[in-house]
Design a protein that fits this description.
two-stranded antiparallel ribbon; 63% helix; mainly alpha; elongated
Length: 195
């Protein structure tokens, strides 16, 4: 936004110096386009046409634009990002790293950070943490415990799948097959192939 205002200032000084304020205001509004700004501009044009607007100079217009569409500070952007972060289908490790990246150099206090962190966790992990005998007390402890629970839960799922495969094989004896010389685990592309 500040780039737009600076460019408009420069153009007005260079090309429209001496023009009537209403002409200058109309020229600036000509380049206010898109999305929410478009509706705002339409309302302002109606007010100007009816003589109901307090804007009489381009400086007043720029002040109004700054007030209506002020750029958010870095801190506000981080808080907004923080509200949007969720673990969803990814590992807790990845969620924690993104959370740390967004909160780095943040002035947020510990308790609100913990609440935002918990809010973004998958429901299963959040519920398991809530049932813990001793709740973590710092954001670091919450992150560490959540990562550990997530890893354990994912490992448990892998083991359950392997157990089900083992039980589905005749005789309950699943054996990997394939040439162990190919890839790390054998088979094409390093896969274990069960028979």
């Amino acid at each position: 936004m500040s780039a737009f205002i600076n460019a408009a200032h420069l153009y007005l000084r260079m090309k429209m110096n001496g023009e009537a304020a209403t002409t200058q205001i109309a020229w600036v509004l000509l380049y206010v386009q898109g999305g929410v700004v478009e509706a705002w501009k339409d309302n302002l044009l109606d007010e100007l046409a009816k003589g109901e607007s307090e804007i009489k100079t381009t400086e007043e217009l720029f002040t109004k634009i700054r007030n209506e569409f002020r750029e958010t500070s870095e801190e506000e952007r981080k808080v907004e990002q923080l509200w949007k972060i969720e673990q969803e289908g990814r590992t807790c490790d990845k969620y924690v790293q993104e959370f740390k990246k967004v909160t780095r150099e943040s002035s947020c206090e510990e308790r609100p950070l913990i609440e935002e962190f918990k809010k973004g966790l998958n429901g299963t992990i959040r519920r398991k943490l809530a049932k813990a005998e001793k709740l973590p007390s710092t954001i670091g402890e919450w992150q560490e415990k959540a990562v550990r629970l997530d890893r354990n839960q994912r490992q448990s799922r892998v083991e359950e799948r392997m157990l089900r495969r083992n039980m589905a094989c005749p005789g309950g004896n699943a054996q990997p097959r394939g040439d162990y010389g190919e890839g790390l685990y054998g088979g094409r592309g390093g896969q274990i192939i069960w028979r």
